[in-house]
Design goal:
single chain, alpha+beta, Jelly Rolls
Length: about 290
């Protein structure tokens, strides 16, 4: 058993700074209040140094050992991760394509005893995240592959501009890139009722700098993000080692499972759960994707 597997969660998290088990304490209320303000303003907030410094090397080693389990496949994608649609107008942003070179370790290849798996499923952690988002409860994705993943971006690769399928994403950087690998996002660039294709097109064409924010992250930081409505990417990674981040995906509604096409694109395979759920997906909006 590794060091991080043997240690209780309250020894992993800086609970003096983030008192997850004491939500009504002055410190607990202050943390949640700040997170809510920033999520309301920009759809994003960062909890710096969430993981205790003494365990960050263990976390990096744990995720580095998982990284070879990732499905690697450079693909041509658009920001909606949809198939080409010739019926769209010629200037529609759905026609702009990018090379997606990042890779994902699927949830069924991440041991339940790992730190990132224990965090994702821990009820106290989930309750804390729900409070930060201002929700009564969050649900783990029912998807057996995409609820919890490790995102791997090798040197020379990037995770290009895209929108998330799930409304609420929590990520934790476990290994920084030597250069590049910057998280960039466009807060509230669309809503559940308005795609704002013009603004999306401006960003993709390089005319939307006014809409883009850049967020420096360090190993052990936790980021809360409304990626369904914010166009975002990880810029090309430089140096001699990859960038790793654990992604915890939650939904306000239970039963969320990814589509067959999107799942195969990300993981190179689908499971019976994806086939069974096709055509009756749990969705909270009618956005393109």
């Amino acid at each position: 058993m590794s060091t991080v597997e043997a240690i209780a969660l309250d020894q992993v998290i800086d609970t003096a700074r983030y008192p997850l088990s004491e939500p009504e304490s002055a410190e607990g209320r202050a943390v949640v209040s700040r997170a809510r303000r920033e999520l309301l303003a920009s759809g994003c907030t960062v909890l710096p140094a969430f993981i205790r410094p003494a365990l960050r090397d263990d976390l990096e080693q744990e995720c580095s050992a998982l990284a070879p389990r990732a499905h690697f496949d450079v693909e041509t994608v658009n920001v909606y991760n949809t198939a080409p649609d010739p019926s769209l107008p010629a200037d529609h942003p759905g026609h702009r394509t990018f090379q997606r070179g990042n890779a994902f370790v699927a949830r069924d290849r991440i041991p339940a005893a790992s730190l990132i798996s224990r965090l994702y499923s821990h009820q106290v952690f989930q309750a804390f995240i729900a409070r930060c988002f201002g929700l009564p409860q969050l649900h783990e994705l029912a998807d057996p592959l995409s609820g919890l993943v490790l995102n791997v971006v090798e040197p020379g690769m990037e995770h290009p501009w895209h929108f998330d399928t799930n409304e609420f994403t929590v990520s934790m950087l476990t290994r920084q890139a030597q250069t590049g690998g910057i998280f960039e996002f466009c807060p509230h660039i669309r809503s559940a009722h308005d795609e704002r294709f013009d603004d999306v097109r401006d960003v993709l064409d390089g005319r939307g700098e006014r809409l883009v924010r850049r967020l420096p992250l360090r190993s052990g930081d936790v980021q809360l993000f409304k990626g369904r409505y914010a166009l975002h990417r990880v810029s090309p990674v430089g140096g001699d080692h990859p960038r790793h981040s654990a992604i915890f995906a939650y939904s306000e509604r239970p039963g969320v499972i990814g589509s067959v096409a999107r799942t195969r694109q990300l993981f190179g395979r689908v499971l019976p759960e994806h086939t069974a759920a096709e055509g009756r997906a749990v969705r909270g909006d009618r956005l393109l994707d």
